[in-house]
Each structure stands twice: as structure tokens, then as C-alpha cells.
Amino acid sequence: MSNAAKFGKVAVLLGGKSAERAVSLDSGQAVLEALLRSGVQAEAFDPQERSVTELVAYDRAFIVLHGRGGEDGQIQGVLEWLNIPYTGTGVQGSAIGMDKVKTKQIWQGSDLPTAPYRIITKDTDLDAVIADLGLPVIIKPVHEGSSVGMSKVEKTEDFAAAIAKATAHDAVVMAEKWITGREFTISFLNGQPLPVIRLQPPADVAFYDYEAKYQRNDVEYGIPCGLSEAEEKTLQVLCLRAFQAVGAEGWGRIDAMQDEQGNFWLLEVNTVPGMTSHSLVPKAAQAVGYSFDALCVAILEQTLAASV
Ligand SMILES: Nc1ncnc2c1ncn2[C@@H]1O[C@H](COP(=O)(O)OP(=O)(O)O)[C@@H](O)[C@H]1O
Ligand SMILES: [Mg+2]
């Protein structure tokens, strides 16, 4: 595979210091192995263990850091300064995507449907929040991923514990209207939507939580997703607009739900989604013929356009 020589020396950025470090180590290792199998001169680089200034020794970077520090524009900014092409979304889109409230504000301003929400602070009148959003709600840290620190709240008296749990992870916490219905995720490759996947957590969990995501193997992944062809297209077009509105680029994923009336609601954008071989983007890409290795090379190829 001499063709892989065009990439030069590639740093696979993995690990980092966020709450999703363990997930990133798994994703990063899978990407590293895929690139090595494809003949790419790739090396693991954990910015938690080495100074980012050492990145000058590389020709390009494949970012597989999830969460704060790696998915929020910080490492993207370092790479811009060092003039090293990198995969995926740039500084601004990454910073917006990591912030669930800023993302929603942009979607609202673009007339894109996103589940109603309120920011919760010490001074928030919870009765007013319940009057606005109804019950149940889901309490989320604004800058986390992997369902870390989230809880479903069905009764007023459960708010305090849910807010405390979210506050342990983030200074900014939100309540979002609970959407009863079906959950979908829409992956992107080369800036275009892939087939939609339906996620169906087992009946005994309230939502697609950390455990369901990483520690259980009884989540069902529907691909095809069960929507009619026309509805799937509608959701893809909606998500493409949502992806572009926040400035996401290249590859990524949007999580969305469909309520019982059939309306779609955008939840969030992931600019560096999971990349283990059983993650969602690889499943969607596989449906259009990409092996995991081919997907990793295709994502890396996006950095060539940025090279001089
Ligand atoms: N408004 C909502 N109504 C119902 N379930 C939700 C809602 N928001 C999130 N969830 C559930 O919580 C999971 C995680 O929420 P999400 O916003 O995607 O954050 P994360 O960044 O942690 O993936 C979703 O995959 C979904 O199962
Ligand atoms: Mg999500």
C-alpha cells in the first residue's frame, strides 16, 4: 500500500484528560490499528502523557479525543498554530458542538427543531421550569458526552439529586424536555449523511446511558432504521442542515429523536464520535460499503485537502 505514504507521519490523538478518556483510548487504539493495517505510518499520541509541542514531528493528526480538551476546539487550535492538518471539525465548530446549549441556540436561530430546554443555576425557579417543560425532563451537564452525569427526572423531588449529579461534572447544567419516542443517530462522512441508525436501549434502562453505550451488549441497532424512505431522507436533510449550521466538518454524528406525533427533535452533535469497531459511525459507513479500515483512511484523506 505505497499509496499510504502520501499521509506521511500521522499522530493518532487519543486518551486526553476528559471524562471520556477510557472511551477515547479504545477508539484511538482501533483507529491506530486500522491505519497501520492500511500501511499508514501512524503512531499513538496521548496529550495527557506528552507535551503537545511534540506534535511538530508529525505531518498530520487524526483526532480521536472525545470530550473537553479534544473535541472542543482546544487541540484543534494547537494544531492550527503548529500548521498540522487534522481530521474533522475546526476550532469554532468544535467549540460550539461541545456546548449543548450553544448548539441548541444556533439550531433555534436556524429554525431547526431541537428539544426545549432551560439552563439551571442556583437561582432557577424549578416550578417555572416544570411549567415550561413539563415532566419528565432530562438533566444534563452542558459540556459532557457519553451520557455522563445525566438523569431522567419524573418527580419534582428528584430534581435536587439529578442537578447535583450533573453539577459534579460541569459548572453549567440544563434541563431538557423529555421526548417520548424513538431515538436515531445520523452519521456523516465527507460532510454527507450516511444511513440512519435507530438505537433501542433495553427496556429496563430509562435512556441510552453510559452503561448501555459501553457496558451492555443488548442495545439494538436498527439499520435500516425502520423509517419510511421519505422520512429517513427528511431526517438526513434536517441533520445535514444542523451539522452545517454549527460549522461541523468532514465526519461526525447527530443524535435525534422522533416523538409519538412523528416530529423530529435534534439532541446534539458529536464532532469526534466513538470509533471502536462496534461504534455507530462505523456501523453506518459499513452499510454503504466501508470496512472499518477504509472508513479510517477516508477520514484521514480529508486532511489532504488542507495540505499545501
Ligand atoms: N430530551 C430527551 N428525551 C429523551 N431522552 C433523551 C433526551 N436527551 C437525551 N436523551 C437520552 O440520553 C442520551 C444521551 O443524550 P445526548 O444529548 O445524546 O448526550 P451525550 O453527549 O451524552 O450523548 C441520548 O442518547 C438519549 O438516549
Ligand atoms: Mg449523544
From TrEMBL:
Provide GO CC annotations from the record: cytosol
Return the EC number. 6.3.2.4
The ATP-grasp domain, residue ranges: 104-301
Name the positions where Mg(2+) 2 binds: 268, 270
Which pathway, metabolic or otherwise, does it act in? Answer: Cell wall biogenesis; peptidoglycan biosynthesis
What is the required cofactor set for this protein?
Answer: Mn(2+); Mg(2+)
Name the domain of life.
Bacteria
- Localization terms from the record: Cytoplasm
As recorded in UniProt, coiled-coil segments are none
Copy out the cofactor comment.
Binds 2 magnesium or manganese ions per subunit.
Look at the named UniProt entry and state the broad enzyme category this protein falls under. Answer: ligase
Predominant location category: cytoplasm
Query: What are the recorded GO MF terms, alphabetically?
Result: ATP binding; D-alanine-D-alanine ligase activity; metal ion binding
PROSITE patterns in alphabetical order: ATP_GRASP, DALA_DALA_LIGASE_1, DALA_DALA_LIGASE_2
Reactions mediated catalytically: 2 D-alanine + ATP = D-alanyl-D-alanine + ADP + phosphate + H(+)
Looking up InterPro entries in the UniProt record yields: ATP-grasp, D-Ala_lig_Van_CS, D_ala_D_ala, Dala_Dala_lig_C, Dala_Dala_lig_N, PreATP-grasp_dom_sf
Question: Could you tell me the keywords of this UniProt record?
Answer: ATP-binding, Cell shape, Cell wall biogenesis/degradation, Cytoplasm, Ligase, Magnesium, Manganese, Metal-binding, Nucleotide-binding, Peptidoglycan synthesis
Q: Which amino acids does the record list as binding Mg(2+) 1?
A: 255, 268
Active-site annotation: 20, 146, 279
GO BP, one annotated term = regulation of cell shape
Family under the similarity heading = Belongs to the D-alanine--D-alanine ligase family.
Q: What does this protein do?
A: Cell wall formation.
Protein name, UniProt field? D-alanine--D-alanine ligase
